[in-house]
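Why predict the complex rather than its parts? Because the way molecules touch one another can change local conformation, and only a joint prediction can capture that. The input here totals 1083 residues.
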Amino acid sequence: MSKRARALFLGLLSPAILSLVAGGASAKDAAWNLNMPRGVTEVSQAAYDIHMIMIWVCTVIGVLVFGFMFYIMFAHRKSRGVTAANFHENLTVEILWTIVPALILIVMAVPATTALLKVYDTENPDIDIKVTGYQWKWQYEYIGEGVKFMSELRTSQDEQYGRAPKGEHYLREVTQPLVIPANKKVRFLITGNDVIHSWWVPDFAVKRDAIPGLFTAAWAKTDQPGVYVGACTELCGKDHSRMPVVVEVKEEAEYYAWLAGKKEEAVIYQSTIGKEWTNDELMAKGEAVYAVSCAGCHQSAGQGIPGVFPALVGSSIVTGPVEGHIGILINGVAGSAMQSFADQLSEVDIAAVIHYKRNSWGNDMGDIVQPVDVLNYKQNQ
Amino acid sequence: MDNSKTHRSVVVKSLFGVVVMFMFAIFVLPPLYDLFCEITGIGGKTGGAYTATEITVDTSREVEVQFVATNNATMPWDFYPVEHKVIVHPGESKEIIFYAKNRTGKDMVGQAIPNVLPNNAADYFLKTECFCFNNQPLAAGEEADLAVVFIIDPDLPASVNTVTLSYTIFDITDRVPMQVSQAQ
Amino acid sequence: MAHGPSENFFNRWLFSTNHKDIGTLYLWFSFSMFLLGGAFAMVIRAELFQPGMQLIKPEFFNQMTTMHGLVMVFGAIMPAFVGLANWMIPMMIGAPDMALPRMNNLSFWILPFAFAILVSTLFMEGGGPNFGWTFYAPLSTTYAPDTVNYFIFGVHIMGASSIMGSINIIATVMNMRAPGMTYMKMPLFVWTWVITAFLLVAVMPVLAGAVTMMLMDINFGTSFFDAAGGGDPVLFQHVFWFFGHPEVYIIILPAFGVVSQIIPTFSRKPLFGYSSMVYATASIAFLSFIVWAHHMFTVGMPIAGELYFMYATMLIAVPTGVKVFNWVTTMYKGALTFETPMLFSIAFVILFTFGGFTGMMLSIAAADTQYHDTYFVVAHFHYVMVAGAVFSGTAAVYYWLPKWCGRMYDETMGKLQFWIAFIAFNITFMPQHFLGLAGMPRRYSDYGLQFADWNMVSSIGAFMYGGAQLLFLYNVIRTIGWGKPISDPKVWEGAEGLEWTLPTPAPFHTFSTPPVLK
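Output of the joint prediction:
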């Protein structure tokens, strides 16, 4: 075989070879990663296995067909003085190369089917978790436990826009990960709040669309504690790439301790809701909440994007009556991208962020909004 | 000459016929599609109201029925199931309640859209009464206990032990032409 | 008596009823759209060169990805092959022109109009369409910018253009073949276009239906895709992909036809398995109607549906494989030379097959949970559409340009353009497989640090590939303006077919009297 042909041949093959060697590395170690992760569940292993079978089958077929082609390009070139033959049909050969691929497909269909049956086996879960896709964050609710929280991107605007160096977990860190126990079958009930999103955890091989108005189901069971990062995989608007999925798998005992802690948090929160917060406390908390939940649209200095997201600097709502301002956050603005945050942020967070906006960037309202004011608003509208 | 006149009239009649056929299709197809979804249960759509006939309760089998509620974007009502799951026998009629409260300062109308998982259970989840059959008007600050009465068909496939009934509630205040009546 | 084109520029081009001139209009239009769509791609790859947002805002990025897809699919690839059809089909079947020359003119001229409207939305308040070329509801209905109505209008017009063009092709081929040219004697390029035309007539109205339902939901309060009113967002996906899957075969079938003309020429051997090739093309077209939901494997379909669509999709490999084997066997024991059209055609066979392999992987629904909506899919469809359809279109231009304009392109420049395009293409899109497998979703304006390396490589390849297209433009212009004149009707030693019996360049009117078939 000519040098050029051999070089081309190997050039096409080497990624396939390398991937077999480097295969299965976990997503988070990947710099020059070539292959999908093996993952940590039965389903992810099944997906990986059938993926590798397909790669092998395709590689073999490719080597045979392309090898034959390269041979022809070398041996049957006019410059070697050959004369062209004239044959142009052969029924036997046509039948053979129809039947043989069809047989190969039938053989492939068997592991493909068993793998898919595993994906669909959502029966008898130990734990049910409702996953809701929002623009542009996830909400996780532990059904029957009364625990519900938002999971939003934690990476700062400064890192994203090059004003600060990017951290190691750039775009892969959230305010609160989903926590699940090891060795328990967890079922995910997935829906969308506004547009279609999609919840994907590569290490679990779970990917199901989050569609507003209906629910889809997936499941995972793993015996390996750790942190697993995934992504939103359905275009959902401007921050589609800024709503990562982070799942933390804890040992069973640790999980139940964590769950109990979350319930405690809710109880403590309820009992301290009447506390009077100071200006400094509210400003600090408000700044943090703003960076995660508001800056994406209203921008880091409240300047908004003209024609798209209103500026908060000097805005009539932010510099107007407190009650109107609270109302906007609680109820959202119908027909716009401004969501109702009543379900997403606690009364403390809402009060703090309102206070922060009313007293930053030249807005100088000087008033104080307490969490209990927000609670009263919600209950007495 | 004659030929082209007949030909022209054939063309005109055929085109007219095509228009009539499409108008017919526009009227007939939506109900047909609904019927198709009801019969096959595709999309998790459950059927309409089920009128209970004689049905024997299968006491040898238990099915766990879970209830999930979710609000669509900018739907600010409180909306959740009072119990999050029950255990029933197929054939047994059961009533459960979803609580809803209109927390805002204006009258609104909501619509709950049901969904049943797994897909192959949708055909066997029979609702004799459901608040999702109609829209839900709630005045400002009003709350309501919304009932669903259901029966699990004893022919539910043996592999299904858990059925999840979920509702997404939407704000349809702007779409409902009539005035919101004060609730009963 | 044959006469030349009108002396008046507007009469000649605006009111043309000549298949050659209209073919030229389509080809230049599609090439300018290709460069425009390519410019959008350059913006995308420039932003994705490094993690972080350096050049544009996320909202604009979504407009770029959307417009790149729309312009390339509807403005570049489809009109390019319609242009080839217009130029070549009448000459290949011995017909004087298309069956409906005035409708032919209309089919073309509404396209620049539609795209002017579509592209102008980028400058309107709220920005252009930003919901992906697949425009799923409710992102494209309830949450769409105001310009969505212009988008819908543009899609309707493009669809009308395609439907009219297809009717023309079917009418021409059914009625105007020279005496003695039975269906099973037609060149394969004509066969693939006839089958494509039937696909277009069948599915373009479905796309029109989808965008009309969108229009109703957005402007007239209906709820086709809105669960609140009893509708279903998934319905959109079914309707769209019922169009969308045949659409990708509409894109590739004419490309198969081109390659089936070029490989025999440069192998100096007839196409192997002509009837099998026809039946395989027809099978692919038929199968393309019944596999659409493989684009929706993660939507929560009942398992029976998902299994069915998986099996049906896997089946398409069979007739496609038959075609690949037939091309290879055509080359076998031929006397091969490797002029530029042959280089592009061979690259087509290899790279399209590679894209077919990744397509097979995607058809496995369980594995698709890891591939769906990631860069693995992006890599797959660029292999089949760029290394497939675009390479085939480029091959066609080099192959037929001498016949069209009577001048030969510079072979060294042609080969140079090929190698740069081939290498740059692979540098751009091979790493995208790895990105997808490593976990990077598509339509992402920014990404985590672990994806940085391959993204940088891909972007470098993309800039190189853009350069290769500018070189292609240069080659074409240089040939038309200053190329070595050629008058041999046959142009290529191994070329067979009625079009190669005509003078070079082909006169304005050809086959005013039907030829006698030997």
